[in-house]
Specification:
By secondary structure, the protein is α+β, with helices and mostly antiparallel strands. It is built from seven helices and six strands. A six-stranded mixed beta sheet has the order 1-6-5-3-4-2, with helices on both faces. Strand 3 (32-38), helix 2 and strand 4 form a beta-alpha-beta unit. The mean pLDDT is 96.
Length: 182
């Protein structure tokens, strides 16, 4: 069962979170945004990634939404998150492949301990941004992962959802909030 709440002053929050999150901007002028608060050792995040990441990426590539990936490591994997951030800076596609590999392994019972090809020294500079994302998430009452925040750029409020219950419910919420389909 998921928990849902309204986030006020979402524009101010996006301005702050954009300084530390990983943003995949849409082409043109997107209607809205999806912020994914995630932990690389979170089983719910793994299911959300496996079930919905292609859908999120499709919405992004079609110009409907900007995607923000905000680190929220619950399981003390800050350096692993920092290494994923290094991959993002190298290549967004490599980042998405790494997420898929990590999450597919997780659902099969294997926790990722490292990201091949990224040295600890390369990632150390990203650890503070990982911590800042988590701190900012707590400012809007994010208590764990997975949590998504979504909304429209022409509105002052967004909707946050903690937990993951089904792809259909998430897609329906996106239709309601971003596309304003009742």
């Amino acid at each position: 069962m998921s928990e849902r709440w309204v986030v006020n002053n979402v524009k101010g929050f996006l301005e702050r979170i954009s300084r530390c999150s990983l943003k995949v901007g849409a082409n043109g002028k997107p209607l809205g945004f999806i912020v994914f608060f995630y932990d690389l050792h979170c089983p719910g995040c793994a299911l959300l990634d496996i079930d919905l990441m292609d859908y999120f990426i499709n919405l992004n590539r079609r110009g409907y939404v900007d995607l923000y990936f905000a680190d929220y490591p619950v399981h003390k994997v800050e350096l692993l998150h920092a290494k994923a951030r290094v991959l993002f800076k190298r290549s967004i596609d490599e980042y998405f492949k790494a997420l898929s590999t990590i999450y597919e392994g997780l659902v099969k019972g294997s926790l990722a301990k490292d990201i091949p090809g990224v040295a600890d020294s390369e990632a150390e500079g990203e650890v503070e941004k990982v911590r800042k994302c988590k701190e900012l998430a707590k400012s809007i009452n994010v208590v764990g992962t997975p949590t998504i925040l979504l909304g429209r750029y022409d509105r002052e409020v967004g909707v946050a959802v903690f937990g993951y219950d089904s792809p259909d419910n998430v897609m329906k919420l996106i239709e309601e909030v971003i596309f304003e389909v009742s």
